[in-house]
């Protein structure tokens, strides 16, 4: 079996849902109940919510309670690692120094400001050119 990396609760839940587990309920506790059907039986497991890092052994116990096989766990984790690698490569190739540490909201604001400045500069340039070269020449 491949080694399970430590991850946040949100990342772990995404893995469970990709593997076929479904959210059942969460009341006033910090645990959510997820279930999975395997061989016409329903298996349930509590999952800690709101944690920044979950212990790999805890993740493995939850996988086992939901009857994930070693191959299924390896496949889900491999897909996650592959997505992270491709996202990292895309970020390295498409983002410059300006975008590297910015969050999504900051990126959107910077993109809006830059496009607005370019639009204003373009309009100003058009006005200046129209004064220099009148249309009736």
Task: Describe the protein.
- The chain is α+β, with helices and mostly antiparallel strands and 137 residues long.
- It has two domains: 86 residues, Metal Transport, Frataxin, Chain A (2-Layer Sandwich); 37 residues.
- Helices cover 54% and strands 15% of the residues.
- It has four helices and three strands, in the order αβββααα.
- A three-stranded antiparallel β-sheet has the order 1-2-3, with helices on one face.
- β2 and β3 form a beta hairpin.
- The protein is elongated, with a radius of gyration of 25 Å.
- The mean pLDDT is 80.
Summary of the model, kept short:
The protein has 137 residues and is an alpha+beta fold. Helices cover 54% and strands 15% of the residues. The longest helix is centred in the last third of the chain and has 29 residues.
User: What structural category do the secondary elements indicate?
Assistant: alpha+beta
Count of extended strands: 3
Indicate the mean pLDDT.
80
**What gross morphology would you assign?**
elongated
Low-confidence stretches: none
Helices, by number, come to 4
Main traits of this protein?
54% helix; alpha+beta; elongated; 15% strand; 3 strands; Metal Transport, Frataxin, Chain A; 137 residues; three-stranded antiparallel β-sheet; 2 domains
């Amino acid at each position: 079996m491949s080694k399970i990396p430590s991850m946040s609760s949100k990342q772990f839940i995404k893995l469970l849902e990709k593997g076929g587990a479904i959210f059942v309920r969460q009341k006033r506790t910090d645990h959510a109940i997820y279930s999975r059907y395997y061989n016409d039986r329903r298996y349930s497991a509590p999952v800690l919510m709101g944690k920044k890092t979950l212990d790999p052994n805890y993740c493995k116990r939850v996988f086992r309670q939901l009857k994930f096989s070693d191959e299924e766990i390896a496949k889900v984790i491999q897909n996650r690692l592959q997505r992270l690698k491709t996202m990292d490569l895309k970020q390295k190739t498409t983002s410059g120094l300006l975008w590297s540490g910015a969050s999504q909201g900051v990126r959107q604001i910077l993109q809006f400001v830059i496009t607005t400045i370019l639009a204003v500069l373009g309009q100003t340039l058009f006005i200046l050119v129209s004064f220099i070269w009148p249309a009736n020449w």
